[in-house]
Amino acid sequence: MPVFKIHHITRYQYDRPVKESVSQVRIYPLEDPGQHLRQFDLHISGDPEVAVFSDFYGNKVGDFSLLQPHQELVIDSRFAIETSVRADAAFHSTMKVDQLQPLMEKDINLLRLREPERIGEQWVIDSILKDLKLQDKSISEMVWACSEFIYCNFRYEKGITSVETTVDEILDHRSGVCQDFAHVCLQLLRTLGIPARYVSGYICPNKSGLRGEGATHAWVECWIPEHGWVGIDPTNNVWVNGYHVKLATGRDFNDCSPVKGTFKGIARQMLSVFVSVGYEDGHVFEDVNQVKMEAASEDKLEPWQADWIQAQQQQQ
User: How high is the pLDDT of residue 185?
Assistant: First the structure.
């Protein structure tokens, strides 16, 4: 059973003071049969009190706020986690999609996770599925075919999409990163009538060459009755098996965002995300991602910001 030591730092920096920032984090690893959390530490600048609760999908969520003016917010989590690896790397199923309905009627959440998003380019999704000729395939064969199509026909390229990129846009330029491929995969599976959910976390394959190693990662879980929730990673076209660490699940990225929040003030914010994954053999993989953020107006300051800046200058 592999054990990974993961260090995740989210750092917001502001060119002007902000205050009354309110944030929500989903950076607590999920406890399930496939992973066991050995140790977890969370440090947040300003040492605010964190209110922890479980959301609709069973994710552990933390809410906190910083009322005083500040120009930096750092969220630093460190944990050790043990995952399990199956001997059989694939999932085999004999069940067909038309056999799912009686089972899903007993669980309204499965019905909700089966419904595809309303998108402008749904005809593209329908065309892909028609070309794949999946009519007589089992659920697991359908899932694998959708993942394989994305892996073979979409280009992995950083920096051309954001968390706000739509499925329509991804289908148009057929490129992006893990979260984009996960969203396309969800649309394909749900159009087929298969319940599927978005998963956020990390991929930790230790120098295997898989795309996304060490960084925050995203993939999909589909519901296969013989197996329950099963992970498929269309970015790498692999079944999830011991080398993916789950943080949160939901309908899409918005339900699983590791950090989101708001603040009071006019400022340009800069976001950097650092992830370090330590392996049992001593190897450490590090990744730093600088995220583009919207710039603030250069000629505006709220009165309290001007007063705070003046007070700071007088103290120097």
Answer: 98
| C-beta of residue 182 within 8 angstroms of C-beta of residue 198 | yes
Which residue ranges in the chain fall short of pLDDT 50?
none
Same domain? For 298 and 231 the reply is no
* Residue 33 maps to a domain: yes
Q: Around Cβ 292, how many Cβ atoms within 10 Å?
A: 9
**pLDDT in the model for residue 72:** 95
Exposure b/e, 218-231, CB count within 10 A at least 16 = b: bbbbbbbeeeebbb
The CA angle 260-266-267, to the nearest 5 degrees, is: 70
Same domain, 52 and 78: yes
CA pair distance 83, 106, nearest whole angstrom: 30
Q: Which pLDDT does position 313 carry in this prediction?
A: 61
Q: Is 95:54 a contact under the CB 8 Å cutoff?
A: no
Neighbours of 147 (CB within 10 A): 25
